[in-house]
Amino acid sequence: MKKNNRIINWDNPDTKYSHPGKTLSTHISEVNELFKRFCYFYQISPVYEEIMKDVANYHDMGKLNPEWNLNKDRRPSHADVSLRYLHEKGYYEILKQRHGMTDFVLTLYFILKHHSSLSDSTGIDDYELKRLCEYTRMLVEKMQFDRKVNLVDAFGLFKISDCLSAADNVDFQPRSENISNDKIKEMISRKNGKKLDEVRWQDQLRIAQLPNISFLSAYTGWGKTDASLLFCSGASIKKVFYLFPTITAINKFYEKVTSSFPNAVEKYFYLYEYELANKSQQSDAEYIDSELGSLMASHFLYPIMITTVDQFLLTFLQIGKYYMKRCMYRQAGIILDEVHLLNQKMLFLTLKFLKDFEKIYGLRVLFMSATFSNAILSLMKQEIGGDGERVGIMDRSEGYRQLRRVKYSIDSQNLMELASEAIEKANQGKRVLIVANTVPVSIKVAQLLEQYTTKDNVLLLHGRFMYRDRIIKERLIGASRNRPRIVVATQVCEVSLDESFDFLFTEIAPLPSIIQRFGRVNRYGLRTDDPNVIVCKEDRMSNRYPYDDDELVKSRNILEEVGDLKNEYQLIEKFNEMESFDELQKKYEEAARDVDFDSSWFGNSQIGQGRTSYFFSYRLDEDQTRNKLFNLRDELTVNILPDPSCVEEPLKNELTEKLAKMRVENSRSAKSLLFKELRGYMVQVPIYWLKGISVNNNNGMMTTVHFTNKRYSSRYGFLESSEVGNVV
Fold it and tell me: What backbone torsions phi and psi does residue 22 show, to the nearest 5 degrees?
């Protein structure tokens, strides 16, 4: 630490208030008790528990500096001053003797970083602190993988304990949920609203017997998403994570699961990291950490968590304070739904992390899709290291043989050119679903349709709406068959739309997506002789397109060759014939090279190069590393809170008022309620959108994002500025 001749007459921890209503001694005692509960729950080794006990005992000693005053708006930093306290009070030698030199250094490092991300640098101009970070980097590079993971997870549990104490949630007890077959049966019965199909239920019960790494495929309507919870029934797991491809799928499923497991389920949306937006001033660091940390902890600690694959990846890519989230995956059951929607980069990252952490975390993982081709199944098994009895496969796609719910034709026109035909179907009393491959096309189609019918007859649904607006739209779709007659959607309908339509217009897409879209038509029927699907030409309005050309060509060829379906399984059979394992593996390897995983994230590195080595947070304060993350483009999304300046009325006024309240609110409970309300205004956007954008950090812990070239409206979501005039 920088030499300072000023003598500090340290305050008394028994009388100095470190948090509202509690002294430092009380806070430390609470943190230790909470941390002890977490260590017992997650079976943390005493080796790591002992290190973090001392981190807990001394992390806030810098608050004994008389200049640090709880009642002041701006307080001096205290994490670095805590190290000075330890040095002056003679604790350095005590800690060295207790832990040995290596763990002594790590103890000091974790104390220094307890309000920040785990970087190998410090924002304080202090030679000794810089040396501490550099020495820690050197130690980490020599550590075994298991030790790195256990150290960071123990630190994460300490930090959650710290935040819970700060939030006065000292009675919190980590718990698992009793996931019984009876409760799952009740959930499925309630959904159907009729007598349970006992034959299918007995078949679904087999899910519980699957090995720890398993694959489940079933025809649309079989009920795999609801029944998949059986995978965690009777298993020795701490938490259940449902990972959906998009945030749009979360709400309805949340309501279903909550009905049978009240007070055990939470939805988690990954906030746009404060560090990603801007480096906080040192004086703000504790405030931001305490407020966001306590709120995050209260939401993330539920036994059943429903979130997205993006949130899983951002955690394991070690963005920001990842250590408070990753530790929750220890001994977890993970259910990944609709795996077919993951592109090769997302699939590579997902399989990489599951393979790396499966054994040390004791994970139980279920991959699900309506269709797994033989090629993708072989590739995933190979990459995750699964063979023999280690991997289970439950295939119920044979059920497609009994179904011919669709009769399709292929059209050379695009969706815009077919708009009049969609209007005609709706005027005949049919409920019409139109599926575009990209958000811009879906918006253009909806705008065109509104020129020929009333606006309440058309509803647009894609992944870039505020959460509050998505809920309204989902309820409108499910409330009545009369309005809206036409729903225009993107791929989100493949996982989030549990509705049956009379007619489908869809752009050509990869066959697994086509099969999912077909499942939204005549969903509860068995056969049809009437045409009810038109597969049309894709419309590319953007340089960024979600599908490769060869995927679309292959899908079109299969549809043309099969022609008049005898049963829906014909598509799967033909897909297996044409899907080449060698071609798929080549694409997968190309995606892995593009991600450049080892050199960008986890390879060994020289000090200051920013790679994480499975320990440090990913560097977001350097252009090179930020750009690497942004270059994942559409493969990775984050949830942002739009600045009111780029939001249309009346939402603009609503959001402005709530942010104004957040800035002046002092009550933690009131601030927590405002935070929950503001979550409803968050929008899921591609991470590359954030490159070069401006942010506002003056909204009472909420970082808002300002776009100069985009405007948000409840009807269309985010529009490019050039499109706003068309709407007006």
Answer: -145, 145
Q: At what angle do helices 549-562 and 569-578 cross, to 10 degrees?
A: 130
d(CA 245, CA 340): 9
> Domain residues for 73?
17-166
| Span between the terminal Cα atoms of the chain, in Å | 59
Confidence check: pLDDT of 344 > 80 = yes
- Classify residue 720: in a domain, yes or no: yes
Amino acid in position 681: Y
Both 125 and 229 in a single domain? no
User: Rg of the Cα trace of the chain?
Assistant: 27
Query: What are the tens digits of pLDDT across the range 472-489?
Result: 888 888 776 666 789 999
Say how far apart CA 390 and CA 388 lie, in whole Å: 5
User: 203 and 346: one domain?
Assistant: yes
What is the number of H-type helices and E-type strands within the chain? 30, 21
Residue type, 6: R
Model confidence band, residue 183 (pLDDT cutoffs 50, 70, 90): very high
For 320, what's the count of Cα atoms within 13 Å in the CB-facing half-sphere? 23
Helices (H), 374-417: 374-384
Whole-angstrom distance, CA of residue 296 vs CA of residue 270: 9
Minimal CA–CA distance to 258: which of 201, 296, 297, 304? 304
Placement of tokens 């977490």 in the chain: 38
Same domain, 124 and 241: no
CA 141 to chain centroid, in Å, comes to: 29
173 inside domain: no
Rounded CA gap, 402 and 379, in Å?
A: 29
